[in-house]
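cache lookup: miss for this entity combination. No prior model stored, computing from scratch. Input as submitted by user K.M.:
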Amino acid sequence: MKKDWDTLEVLKHARHDWLNKIQLIKGNLSLNKVDRVKEIVEEIIFEARQESNLTNLNLPQFASSLLTCNWDQHSFQLDYEVKKTLNIHHLDDQLLAHWTSRLFETLDACIEKFQENHLSVSIQADEKETRFFFDFSGILTDKSSFLRFLEEPVDSNTKIVVSAVSEEEVSFEIFTIPSQRV
Amino acid sequence: MKKDWDTLEVLKHARHDWLNKIQLIKGNLSLNKVDRVKEIVEEIIFEARQESNLTNLNLPQFASSLLTCNWDQHSFQLDYEVKKTLNIHHLDDQLLAHWTSRLFETLDACIEKFQENHLSVSIQADEKETRFFFDFSGILTDKSSFLRFLEEPVDSNTKIVVSAVSEEEVSFEIFTIPSQRV
């Protein structure tokens, strides 16, 4: 279920996330762990850069889905990495965002709640094609439904390849061939 | 001119603001000024609490105007303080937000750009009435127009009182008598 966030809500969630980081700094300062604080500061800056890279992909709806994912009541935590900043022009943002939203719903329905469920997304984009590597780790209660979802065609120039399936892990990759080449 | 912010834009601005604070921490850490870092952390937590208090006033449009003010291209910087957290039910949020937006526009037109112009807002709310104290300090190029704006009636149960006018300062107060008592 996609939720439209308004300014106050977005700021509230963002403030909550940032304050958690500040509290981590504060806690380590009070223990005089200055080196740990320096590490945390570097981690925060790294994360902010990923967020900024994601925002600059020119896929606003898809980026919003990922950025607000952990604020929705999902049964998994999401993290992401964007390897290269690139202004993507060859992808259908709306289609991708819609697929991502269905992925989140399907995952919620197929995993055990209140477990350490984790979805990592790694995005590699260049001028020719974009690859999204997804890695789920956690407790799947309905693996076959989830794999069936991954077999559904997205559109004519987008392919999904499942690269690993085990008891507690599913890895898959989506790559999109630029439409102008099809 | 009111701007509708979307999720990505709000997050981008919020990230920029928070990263400035993190950079301040980082800079002081690299100088081994640990006590200064502790002060900065406390300041950040205080500011976040003000932001949270403002959000919880039950005046969403007014709160959004203040929270996003410094992201617009105004010729002044805004800060605010909310003395008490209270869920306000006796104020017309839309009217107040509209007046605030006109205040910002009028101020922009009456002050010298690229100067240290500053608008402080202090909000005191209780069950019976809400008082908004505004304090402008900076370079006014058209004081009379600005004072004329403050003389315009807002609505029947909202009063503006100008408490101080000097070369580089204008202080005024808006207070609203609860509508049910009128």
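stored under new cache key. Chain A has a mean pLDDT of 90.
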